[in-house]
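Fig. S4 source data, part A: sequence.
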Amino acid sequence: MVVLFADDSPVYRKMVPGHLEGWGFQVEIACNGAEAWQLLSRPDGPRLALLDWVMPDLSGLELCRRIRSGDLGERYVYTILLTGNNQKSKLLEGLQAGADDFLTKPFDPLELQARVLAGKRILDVQRELTVARERLRYTASHDSLTGLWNRAEITASLSREIARSKREGGSIGVILGDLDHFKAVNDTLGHAAGDEVLKVVANRLRLHVRSFDGVGRYGGEEFLIILPGCNLEALCRRAEQLRAAVANLPAVQGRHVTMSMGAVATNPELDGSHSVDYLLNVADAALYRAKKHGRNCVELSALPADQSIASPSDEVDLSARAGKSQVLAKPLFT
């Protein structure tokens, strides 16, 4: 662990780092408060700091206040104030400024070691709690099997994109994809084979979207793909690319994988009153047509010109205009 030691005394700058290094710490040294803040402000700056109370430019007390102001983001810095003043009022003032501990000069090296080790232990616990929190956050937002966003997170992403389109304009492409004859995979090859198929398809979809697109497992063998800034023409092209990417996968468990897709693009000229449920209903209706028309194809829909009277049954069928996707691989099951 790296420890920052900030003190304007040449004697302490020589003595204290020697002790710290002897206890297994790496040490960065600052001669004044400004240098100390510069070292702390780095993204990889020290997380444990020994700060002299009285220093040029910025005092240790001012540094504590600045550290606790939030300028360092979520990174927590454990601070120990060093001072020659042992008044209890000074101890309270230092703790109120954000210091974690207080050590009066001159101090015994063993006492310093105990304070530093206590700070390290607290930082270790804090790091473990942060890792656990991030793990919980990931679990809450991702599908455990495929690693894609789960249904709640992908629909929340669509809601955010709709809100952004209302503010900034622009289209949103939405694709609802369903693996063809997937039930037969589980029934004949077993659920382990079905899980493998889902993971392979999820990875293929992830590799064929842009970094700012959204891909999620909508449920079972259904996937939801969100393409911000994608109009109807671009959606037609992108959906076909994704369909072909899945169809061209190597055989999984001796079978070819195919996917049917229903796609819809919002119209930026409308008033932006479309909702998540509305877009998903339109995409689902297009997906139903893709299944009905032979699977392994893309069916497109556009929102009607007057959305105030629109319903999912009013969508404009563009399958003739877009052209039915050519079947590029043997279906998974027939």
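Fig. S4 source data, part B ends here. Residues 38 and 45 are 9 Å apart (CA to CA).
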